[in-house]
From TrEMBL:
<keyword id="KW-0813">Transport</keyword>
<keyword id="KW-0046">Antibiotic resistance</keyword>
<feature type="domain" description="ABC transmembrane type-2">
    <location>
        <begin position="44"/>
        <end position="278"/>
    </location>
</feature>
<keyword id="KW-1133">Transmembrane helix</keyword>
<dbReference type="InterPro" id="IPR047817">
    <property type="entry name" value="ABC2_TM_bact-type"/>
</dbReference>
<dbReference type="InterPro" id="IPR051784">
    <property type="entry name" value="Nod_factor_ABC_transporter"/>
</dbReference>
<feature type="transmembrane region" description="Helical">
    <location>
        <begin position="195"/>
        <end position="217"/>
    </location>
</feature>
<keyword id="KW-1003">Cell membrane</keyword>
<feature type="transmembrane region" description="Helical">
    <location>
        <begin position="43"/>
        <end position="64"/>
    </location>
</feature>
<feature type="transmembrane region" description="Helical">
    <location>
        <begin position="159"/>
        <end position="183"/>
    </location>
</feature>
<dbReference type="GO" id="GO:0140359">
    <property type="term" value="F:ABC-type transporter activity"/>
</dbReference>
<keyword id="KW-0812">Transmembrane</keyword>
<protein>
    <recommendedName>
        <fullName>Transport permease protein</fullName>
    </recommendedName>
</protein>
<comment type="similarity">
    <text>Belongs to the ABC-2 integral membrane protein family.</text>
</comment>
<feature type="transmembrane region" description="Helical">
    <location>
        <begin position="252"/>
        <end position="272"/>
    </location>
</feature>
<feature type="transmembrane region" description="Helical">
    <location>
        <begin position="135"/>
        <end position="153"/>
    </location>
</feature>
<dbReference type="GO" id="GO:0043190">
    <property type="term" value="C:ATP-binding cassette (ABC) transporter complex"/>
</dbReference>
Length: 280
């Protein structure tokens, strides 16, 4: 006698590289939609994330801008905005860190790992959701910059290249946040992440010239990945900058590409490996 069951068939594992890639993209998109839906249920948090950099722009543009001078002249607001764009890309990494560590601490990540899904989908899906939110945040900042008088002067092609460098920095830093979230697995440790983010954002050429800092501190600021992105985007937008004769200052565009690629080469494989080996 044959017994019929209604048990769902388990999909056959992907065998070719193209099949595995399609599988990973489909699973990653599911996780991306999950994270976006979580944000949609918390509009107050999203509003705070968008309003914080706007408040910083208004504070520096209208409260402190009158006392700022740019070497060689130039409008301070046009000088300020590329740095604020980059600062927006750096801030907010705590949200990624917290989401990853919370899922790991609550066992959500373990449930994902028990499903027949791509092993990289959870971390790539989370990064994709964050990048979509970053695009929205950057668009808001560009609109705010235009409202306070910022303009780009080098044409749309170079402006898009500058936006690409900003998003590349964000994408690379996200993987550092993902890896740390998987390692720490403690949402309450978000303060430790903030201790890393704030020096990265402010120990740079965003608000002050590295030449005015003590020698060792100025060298750290010049070689900061964010400083490279800020200097490169100021050049691409045609906005005034600090200049400088050091190798890092003269090759900011090269470093603005090299630093994110180095960070990706380090933290992307570490994040995927850490996800695969949780609890081992």
């Amino acid at each position: 006698m044959t017994i019929m069951t209604d048990a769902p068939a388990v999909p056959a594992p992907a065998r070719t590289l193209a099949d595995r890639l399609r599988w990973a993209l489909a699973d990653g998109w599911v996780i991306t939609r999950r994270d976006l839906s979580h944000r949609a249920r918390r509009p107050a948090m999203v509003a705070v994330e968008l309003l914080f950099p706007v408040m910083v722009v208004l504070m520096f543009a209208y409260l402190f801008g009158g006392g700022m001078t740019i070497p060689g002249g130039g409008d301070y607001r046009e000088f300020l905005m590329p740095g604020m764009f980059a600062l927006t890309m750096v801030f907010g990494l705590e949200a990624t860190f917290t989401a990853i560590s919370t899922d790991a601490a609550r066992g959500v990540t373990d449930r994902f790992r028990s499903l027949p899904m791509s092993s990289s989908a959870v971390v790539t899906g989370r990064c994709a959701a964050d990048m979509l939110n970053s695009v929205v945040g950057l668009a808001v900042m560009i609109a705010v910059g235009a409202a306070v008088g910022w303009r780009w002067h080098e044409g749309p092609g170079r402006a898009l290249a500058a936006v690409g460098l900003l998003l590349l920095l964000r994408f690379a830093l996200l993987w550092a946040g993902v890896y740390l979230g998987l390692v720490v697995r403690n949402p309450e440790a978000v303060m430790a992440m903030q201790i890393l983010v704030w020096p990265l954002g402010f120990l740079s050429n965003t608000f002050a010239s590295p030449a005015t800092m003590p020698g060792w501190l100025g060298a750290i600021a010049e070689w900061n990945p964010m400083s490279a992105t800020v200097a490169a985007t100021r050049e691409l937008f045609g906005n005034p900058g600090w200049g400088g004769g050091s190798w890092a200052a003269q090759h900011a565009s090269l470093l603005a590409l090299a630093w994110p690629l180095v960070l990706l080469a380090v933290f992307f494989p570490l994040s995927v490996h850490r996800y695969r080996t949780l609890d081992r």
